Amino acid sequence: MRKFIVVGMTLTFLACAGAGQAAPKAPSPPKAEVQARRTAEALYAQALRQMEADDFAAARTSLDDALKQDSTYDPARYVRAIVLSRLRETDAALADLAILEPRADRERFLETKAVTLMEGGRYREATAVYDDLIALKPKSADAYRRRAHVRQASEVDSEIPAALADYAKALELDPDMLDVYGLRGEILSATRDEKGVEENYQAWLAREPDSARAHAGYAGALERLGKIDKARVEIDRALALKPNVEAYLIRARITPKDQREAFLADIDRALALAPDDTFAYQLRAERRHAWGQDDLALADVEKALKAWPESYSARYLRATLHQNDGRYDLAVKDFDVLIAREPDQAALYNGRCWSRGLGNVELDRALADCETALKLLPGNAAILDSRGFIKLRKGDLVGAVADYDLALTTAPDQAASLFGRGVAKRRQGAKAAGDADLARARKVDPGVEKEFAGYGVTP
User: Do residues 331 and 355 touch, judged by C-beta distance below 8 A?
Assistant: First the structure.
């Protein structure tokens, strides 16, 4: 963040008298106060230089010291709020903003608070703040664009229609806000709206026919729609205009899994342009996981989360890697974070239930998670299978068989449910019925017995 930008933002943000201009004459304060202010100003200037060097931890220390010298020096408090937000200390950043609120320009205060909440992954709260900003500035295209982006970044399906409506309003208010086409195109392609995709990107390309970003964005949308050949054409057009991260990542994504060198080369090209790109690390992590290189995959997903700790998909992938590699306690911690963010997602409760079940720990809490998941998604075969497994672990053989029965009603070839039911029946003394289920399970999935043995469960 450039020093002059921060200073300008600070002066705009603060509405108190005298901010950024000569103060009216007043009786000279005691010398100690004058010296304290001067020291605070020097520390503030030092913090700005540290921010420019991306050393936010050092900047935070300098600003702490500045405010110890003079707690009324608002520019230091405002910039500390920005630094704390970058350091993901969201509550502390919000506390500084709350102190400044009575003296702050209302519009800038709401903008800063919303960005702080979004950087902290608190999307619903950020959306509510943008509601207030739009009520204050109903003709602000940027406010609609920002609210749409928060809704999109939340990765919550129910927010998508509202995000599209906000993007449409932003373009209505400012037809030159061309980046909206790219953001909206991601949603339209993810929801497989082929007509919407074509209309969106043709409108953008009509305005900017030689935009590498537009061609790369169009390529990404085509790839999500499964139109790989057309996507390749747009990738080539984008890269002929200008090397760009998105085009390299899309080309990597459509590279066949057996062409490892070509895939990795495009990831390297993307990271050379953007060393902290979350999506590059995540894509490489996904591919390495598919190649059976889970240690390398975990290293990449850690880098993805360092660059963007709020990435839902990267954290979910890390939870999966932890779960698959037997780090069940760490998987539970990731699911805790995801559930706190999205408490209405059945898959998250099922994931946490399954992690505890695999670890054979906190089985009552695991059962409660499965119950919650089934309330959100009644009759789901995967969740019933998880609950059946927890009951098997707990020794509730009747309950386990009942859950496996329900799961197999919906998914009759679900090997895990067949095997689990076979084990439960054998433990009940029904050896013939149990053996029949085990045989069916092995036929559907020859590796199922080895999988269950890894969990410590044998017939």
Answer: yes
User: How far is the CA of 222 from the CAs of 9, 251, 259, 283, 395, in angstroms?
Assistant: 39, 12, 21, 18, 51
Q: In terms of C-beta density within 10 A (0-12 exposed, 13-18 middle, 19 or more buried), how is residue 338 classed?
A: buried
Q: Are 111 and 12 in contact (CB under 8 A)?
A: no
Q: What are the backbone angles phi and psi of residue 158, rounded to the nearest 5°?
A: -65, -15
pLDDT exceeds 50 at position 17: no
- pTM equals 0.80
What confidence tens digit (pLDDT) does each residue in 329-385 have? 999 999 999 999 889 999 999 999 999 999 999 999 999 999 999 999 999 999 999
> How is residue 293 written in tokens?
């290189």
* Cα–Cα distance, 207 to 181 (Å, whole number): 11
CB 234 within 8 A of CB 218: yes
Given a contact cutoff of 8 angstroms between Cβ atoms, the answer to whether 199 and 184 are in contact is no
User: What are the structural domains, with CATH classification, of the chain?
Assistant: 1-20+32-120 (1.25.40.10), 178-267 (1.25.40.10), 344-459 (1.25.40.10)
- HEC letters along the chain: CCHHHHHHHHHHHECCCCCCCCCCCCCCCCHHHHHHHHHHHHHHHHHHHHHHCCCHHHHHHHHHHHHHHCCCCHHHHHHHHHHHHHCCCHHHHHHHHHHHHHHECHHHHHHHHHHHHHHCCCHHHHHHHHHHHHHHCCCCHHHHHHHHHHHHHCCCHHHHHHHHHHHHHHHHHCCCCCHHHHHHHHHHHHCCCHHHHHHHHHHHHHHCCCCHHHHHHHHHHHHHCCCHHHHHHHHHHHHHHCCCHHHHHHHHHCCCCCCHHHHHHHHHHHHHHCCCCHHHHHHHHHHHHHCCCHHHHHHHHHHHHHHCCCCHHHHHHHHHHHHHCCCHHHHHHHHHHHHHHCCCCHHHHHHHHHHHHHHCCCHHHHHHHHHHHHHHCCCCHHHHHHHHHHHHHHCCHHHHHHHHHHHHHHCCCCHHHHHHHHHHHHHHCCHHHHHHHHHHHHHHCCCHHHHHHHCCCCC
Rounded to whole angstroms, how far apart are CA atoms 254 and 263? 9
Over residues 313-326, mean pLDDT: 96
Give the bridge partners for 104, in sequence order: 14
Mean predicted lDDT score pLDDT of the chain:
93
Least confident of 12-21, 190-199, 232-241, 288-297: 12-21
